[in-house]
Specification:
The chain is built from 12 helices and 17 strands. By secondary structure, the chain is an alpha+beta fold. Helix 1 packs across helix 10 and helix 3 runs antiparallel to helix 4. Bound molecules: adenosine monophosphate.
């Protein structure tokens, strides 16, 4: 299936990833129809058509399916049941199995292991009674996470003792949990793969990520890691895309250990915050790659032509930097159209380029 210009692409979710995907789709001549419960999300503001309804509204989903030519999602916390309803009526890319695997941390970790990506020791904790056995298996310190609906550090806690683990579990309950060994990583890196409907995949330069309070703050591309480590991360991303039968883009987040080993942490089966720099630094941005895959258009090597730094603008603190960034021609500023700069909220990002090989050593101070 190749969508002709003028065709309608449905996107579930109305955040900034949907917004930038919709903008890439518009450039290719497509009309984007956004379905989300919020009326004024970043993607709604740039959509050609909108459905504002809960994800559980079967009637609204049926009308949405009838109004579009293909469906994708911009966020993996969209209920898989909503995508399953749509999948009975229309092509969904990626498919519902991909969403189901990636929105459950236990299923995701098991899948990573299955396709040969090493992960930190982990154990399922369905209820409090299972905690002691999990602690014995995983050790301390550890990270207790809800298996679902966690992102940007929500739904997780670092625990240093059995007592802390019990307190965290009661605070985060009711939910099934995963207990993971705390990883003393040297760096965090991510790899991005785009896979087309024809099964051909392309990968992007591995990115190095800095977090603040569990939220991505800064990404540097390419990551300052040995070439063989970058190659391993790309190979893992390709194995993930192949194993998922992905049509679209997916990012794999890794911890890099001091000895050079990579441990897979998470899969995001959609454009990823750490690859926003691809808009300016590549011939093929992650958003265009996603839309091309969903629309059945050809993919090609992303053709990175610059090194890049991408800084998130988070909450009031991030927005305080905006006037200086807007006045500086070195920075490409992207704002997501969110009215209120609440603490921890991603309001926008800014990207800066250097010639290939010239990413300054002090880029992480930017
Ligand atoms: P996640 O929601 O799994 O992506 O976790 C958000 C961030 O928390 C990660 O990017 C890490 O900085 C930190 N984190 C998560 N899991 C672990 C772990 N097992 N060990 C150490 N840090 C972690």
């Amino acid at each position: 299936m190749t969508l002709p210009a003028g065709a309608r692409i449905g996107i579930l979710g109305s955040g900034q990833l949907g917004r930038m995907s919709a903008m890439a789709a518009a450039r290719l001549g497509y009309r984007v129809h956004v379905f989300a419960p919020e009326a004024d999300g970043p993607a709604m503001q740039v959509a050609a058509a909108r459905s504002v309804a809960p994800y559980e509204d079967a009637e609204a989903l049926a009308a949405f399916a009838a109004a579009v030519d293909v469906v994708t999602f911009e966020f993996e916390n969209v209920p898989a049941a909503a995508l399953a309803v749509l999948a009975g009526r229309i092509t969904c890319r990626p498919g519902v199995e991909v969403l189901a695997t990636c929105q459950d941390r236990l299923a995701e970790k098991a899948f990573l292991q299955r396709v040969g990506v090493p992960v930190a020791p982990f154990a399922a904790v369905a209820e409090e009674a299972e905690l002691p056995a999990a602690l014995a298996a995983v050790g301390l310190p550890a990270v207790l996470k809800t298996t679902r609906l966690g992102y940007d550090g929500r739904g997780q806690a670092v625990v240093r003792s059995a007592e802390e683990a019990r307190v965290a579990l009661r605070r985060l309950a009711p939910a099934p949990f995963i207990l993971e060994a705390f990883v003393p990583f040297a760096a965090e890196v991510s790899a991005l793969v785009a896979r087309g409907a024809d099964g051909r995949s392309v990968t992007y330069a591995v990115t190095e990520n800095r977090h603040r309070q569990h939220i991505l703050d800064l990404s540097l591309a390419p990551a300052r890691i040995p070439p063989e480590v970058a190659e391993a991360a790309r190979r893992h991303a390709l194995a993930v895309a192949e194993g998922l039968g992905l049509v679209g883009v997916a990012a794999v987040e890794f911890f890099l250990l001091p000895d050079g080993r990579l441990l897979g942490n998470e899969i995001a089966p959609r454009p990823h915050n750490s690859f926003h720099w691809t808009i300016e630094a590549c011939r093929l941005s992650q958003f265009e790659a996603h839309i091309r895959a969903v629309a059945g258009l050809p993919l090609f090597d992303p053709g990175r032509h610059h090194d890049a730094a991408m800084r998130n603008l988070i909450g009031p603190e991030g927005m305080a930097r905006l006037p200086a960034l807007l006045a500086d021609p070195e920075w490409s500023v992207h704002l997501y159209g969110k009215a209120e700069a609440r603490p921890g909220r991603k309001m926008g990002h800014a990207t800066r380029l250097w010639p290939k090989g010239a990413l300054p050593a002090a880029a992480d101070q930017l």
